[in-house]
Amino acid sequence: FPHTSPFFPSLSFSLVVLAAQEIIVSKPGDNATLSCIYRGRELHLNNLRVYWQKADGQEDCSVVHALISGQDNESEQCIHFKNRTQLFWDRLESGDFSLLLLNVSQSDVRTYKCVVMQKTEYTKMIHQSEVVLSLAASYSQPILSGPIRNSDSTEEEVTFSCRSGNGYPEPNVYWINKTDNSHLPPSELKITPHADGTYSVFSTLKVKATSNMQIECSVENKILQENLSANYTQQKQSNGSSTESHKNLGKKGRGAQAAGIVSVIILIGLLTVLTCWLWRRRSSNQVSYTGNE
Ligand SMILES: *[C@@H]1O[C@H](CO)[C@@H](O)[C@H](O)[C@H]1NC(C)=O
Ligand SMILES: *[C@@H]1O[C@H](CO)[C@@H](O)[C@H](O)[C@H]1NC(C)=O
Ligand SMILES: *[C@@H]1O[C@H](CO)[C@@H](O)[C@H](O)[C@H]1NC(C)=O
Ligand SMILES: *[C@@H]1O[C@H](CO)[C@@H](O)[C@H](O)[C@H]1NC(C)=O
Ligand SMILES: *[C@@H]1O[C@H](CO)[C@@H](O)[C@H](O)[C@H]1NC(C)=O
Ligand SMILES: *[C@@H]1O[C@H](CO)[C@@H](O)[C@H](O)[C@H]1NC(C)=O
Ligand SMILES: *[C@@H]1O[C@H](CO)[C@@H](O)[C@H](O)[C@H]1NC(C)=O
Ligand SMILES: *[C@@H]1O[C@H](CO)[C@@H](O)[C@H](O)[C@H]1NC(C)=O
Q: For all residues of the chain together, what is the average pLDDT?
């Protein structure tokens, strides 16, 4: 090993230059794994110092987690990260210095830096990489209910309501008149934060009842660039034939048509066989008959 050590510094230098930045998207309240993997030669934990720190650290405290001579060292760890970080002990010797950060919240959103130093004759940085932690969570499929007729209004006014949850960050809610794709102003919008950092949303829409109402509620997550929507399409009344049953009829109609064609083909086939058989029987009878004559 001392033999090769003169070459080691130059090798480690090129690895340092190739440092990459990774983005981790986590849900508030979840545990996030910030990855830091060194693919170099075999390591001896006792010679290593691993520092996880704030990359943009102009604050007083920058140490997120420290491993010194094979032991976690909490002496300089920021209070914000106390009892919330752990390394994967079974993976350290293979060069995996990823950090598990428990119960992440908005205050953890930042860029982190992993620095690995090796102490042989002198201390040398052998690896560094950066991880960006951001928070986001998809909203649940919105549930649209209504219309409910408002008894107290003189006009025929109805209320729709829409709810969704378990998302992050705060959503935008859009009510859309699907007839002309115009936006309708909500009459109520309630966004509720939960203990785990996620939000739920409840919104209502009051409109004058018209025939053929087509209403959509859409919940937008700006970070994930995601819109989830739920529809209401008025079924035509009493005159029967709603749009839905039209579609079903269409499918059934096509099915029946296909079945009809198949049975006609089978029938023709059967008739052909029967005709052939009858014809052959008749002609053989004729032959025997003429033979007898
Ligand atoms: C996060 O990790 C802790 C400790 O390992 C565990 O108790 C907790 O259930 C985990 N939380 C989630 C959301 O996985
Ligand atoms: C932590 O590191 C400091 C020096 O940075 C050292 O004085 C202290 O003994 C270490 N503590 C433990 C528990 O290893
Ligand atoms: C960390 O955990 C220890 C023991 O479990 C506890 O005494 C200490 O108060 C905790 N520190 C913080 C900042 O939560
Ligand atoms: C997670 O952190 C939040 C504050 O960010 C706290 O209110 C909550 O109690 C923590 N949950 C757990 C399981 O430690
Ligand atoms: C939706 O748009 C159509 C066409 O512009 C309009 O006739 C109808 O009244 C609108 N419905 C609502 C609930 O605003
Ligand atoms: C979500 O829908 C709204 C309303 O239709 C639209 O303004 C917005 O651009 C959509 N966002 C995405 C990410 O598609
Ligand atoms: C809403 O209706 C459109 C077409 O009118 C359809 O493509 C979409 O899947 C529907 N969304 C839901 C959630 O039913
Ligand atoms: C049923 O349809 C007829 C004409 O197609 C229309 O005059 C009548 O108002 C409809 N009734 C209802 C309840 O929609």
A: 82
